[in-house]
Amino acid sequence: MELEAIKRVYFVGIGGIGMSALARYFAKRGCLVCGYDKTRTNLTIDLEREGILISYMDDDSALPVSFHEKDEETLIVYTPAIPKNSVLIHYFRQRGFALKKRSEVLGIISKGQFCIAVAGTHGKTTTSSIVAHILTHSGFGCTAFLGGIATNYNSNFLLGDNHVVVVEADEYDRSFLTLHPDLAIITSMDADHLDIYGDSSNLQESFHLFASQLKPEGTLFVKAGLPITDGITYSLDKYADVSGLNIRVEQAHFVFDYHSEAQNINDLSLMLPGKHNVENSVAAISVALKLGISPEKIKEAVATFKGVKRRFEYIVNSPEHIYIDDYAHHPEELRACFDAVRQLYPDKKLTAIFQPHLFTRTRDFADDFAQVLGTVDDLILLDIYPARELPLEGIDSQMLLDKINLASKALYGKAEVLDVIKNKQPELLLTVGAGDIDTIIQPLKTILSHA
């Protein structure tokens, strides 16, 4: 399907972070954009305010008349998270509409553009957001589809006036194989999505295929130590091709030096905490230098990057309470998040509320989760958020809690947690998870702000 031919787009699952960015893109192009989602959220409310018509009924009776009959100018986009028995999906398929996954549509958009793709089992949202911010802040410009709400722009979508596109290359169900980037970053290849891949070797094979789809003149930046031999390596190790060195904390900011054979940039200041975010910044800076952006503009842009919502986001920061929220839902992401908290607040007692995401992920990494969750001082565990899955026998939060070697640990429902925190009044609180744990952020903020 050619991009220029598309005049009407319907999104089944429009409230997803990746889907909503595409919806905004087509709306900016002047297309008629409508969609369905199960639940009204802050994100769908924002889309409605932007003029996009959204239904919350999975029923063809709720479809606008423009989407009743198939034609060559109409595109239907769906997310794999939508149940297979969806009435709308069945309706569109029965009538022969062109149905595309979100990843396929990104492939259509990026075709013929200069594509910068960021892949990785974690780190890709922050890294792609830093890339997009450097390009935008420096005046170079780009159109960006992000997997989170960039705080600087309060959006997951940026529209540029050039032919440069920044995209997250999602490994879930091999989605990123629709892309053929000019510049690519691979941040990580830890085992994940084993419900799709079966084992880590299949996941690694998929990343190798992604790397092989780089355009002939393209450049790949890959985190040092990953099992991909082609590409320019980056890390916090001086033996990588490009590296972040001399890392220190100054006035709650991480400060570091960027080093490569061709370029040194000293005393870069980053608002985002954690060495993993310094590493993400090193990759983004490498892309910006490759595009010819000056070190001075890069340094200024990095210093002004405010981060991504739900990626180490300060909710409360007062003398009495510090409350941080993070999207971490994989053991390695939790480890990086906890490490960043400890570096910034080594003397404070850390209370963490964690909501496991997916029964299969909890099953596959139960021992790893138990080990890393056992490093906090006080743990509150929520029930597993199922997302697209049905329950698995013997896999629940109690099973995980029993594995955690920690004196202060408990399992609560979301409603109970608010009273628990009201009584505990923790000086350092962290909420982590990728499910609907974000629904308790505002109530927790209210409790700690009025303590």
Polypeptide structure, described:
This protein has 451 residues and is an alpha/beta fold. Helix content is 33%, strand content 25%. The protein contains 15 helices and 21 strands. It has helices at 17-28, 42-49, 87-94, 102-110, 124-137, 194-197, 200-212, 275-290, 295-304, 331-344, 359-364, 366-373, 397-403, 414-424, 441-449; strands at 8-12, 32-36, 53-55, 74-78, 98-101, 114-119, 143-150, 155-158, 164-169, 183-186, 219-223, 232-235, 242-250, 253-260, 264-270, 313-317, 322-326, 350-355, 378-381, 409-411, 428-433. The strands form three sheets. Strands 8-7-9-6-10-11-12-13-14-15 form a ten-stranded mixed sheet, sandwiched between helices. Strands 16-17-21-18-19-20 form a six-stranded mixed sheet, sandwiched between helices. β1 (8-12), α1 and β2 form a beta-alpha-beta unit. α5 crosses α9 (295-304) and α10 packs parallel to α12 (366-373). The longest helix is centred in the middle third of the chain and has 16 residues, at 275-290.
